[in-house]
Task: inverse folding
């Protein structure tokens, strides 16, 4: 019968800690990459919005001379997005664009004679579809962040995360005031 050695127990414990640490590290890296990949999907939908809207707005613009301010706001917000460098700047610019689009959609809903034009109907459908895509990608992003934050915030993952330098990620949050319906005044 083999005798248990304290040295053998220490070596086994070290090997176990190393193996568990590698597992946690790989998990954190995988989740971080998933979050970054999902953020790119959010950006893809923002870019789709930025590319699509000017073409659709231009086709409707001739019909909507009295709405030049709203279209100007949409164009300015689009320009702000294309000039944004960081994810935070892009979120802020995207929120500005959403506000402009909300006002534009509110105008279309309040004035049935505008809705009858086929170009406006197409614009409304495309805007609604684009906004839905953005919402889906944001939700997925927040799901990935939630999963990662749970991993780095609960034991024993919290111990490994802090030791390895992994910190919680920020959720995508709606802009202040977005819970209120846009007001349209003529």
Result:
């Amino acid at each position: 019968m083999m005798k248990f050695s304290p040295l053998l127990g220490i070596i086994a414990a070290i090997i176990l800690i190393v193996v568990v640490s590698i597992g946690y590290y790989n998990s954190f890296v995988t989740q971080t990459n998933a979050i970054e990949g999902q953020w790119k999907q959010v950006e893809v939908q923002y870019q789709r919005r930025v590319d699509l809207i000017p073409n659709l707005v231009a086709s409707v613009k001739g019909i909507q001379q009295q709405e030049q301010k709203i279209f100007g706001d949409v164009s300015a917000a689009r320009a702000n997005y294309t000039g944004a460098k960081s994810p935070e700047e892009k979120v802020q610019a995207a929120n500005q664009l959403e506000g402009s689009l909300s006002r534009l959609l509110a105008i279309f809903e309040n004035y049935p004679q505008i809705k009858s034009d086929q170009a406006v109907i197409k614009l409304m459908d495309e805007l609604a579809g684009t906004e839905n895509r953005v919402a889906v990608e944001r939700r997925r992003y927040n799901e990935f962040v939630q999963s990662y934050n749970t991993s780095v915030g609960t034991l024993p993952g919290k111990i490994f995360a802090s030791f390895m330098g992994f910190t919680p990620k920020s959720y995508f949050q709606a802009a202040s005031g977005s819970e209120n319906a846009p007001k349209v005044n003529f």
The chain is about 75% helix and 0% strand. Residues 9-164 form one domain. The radius of gyration is 25 Å. The chain has one domain: 9-164.
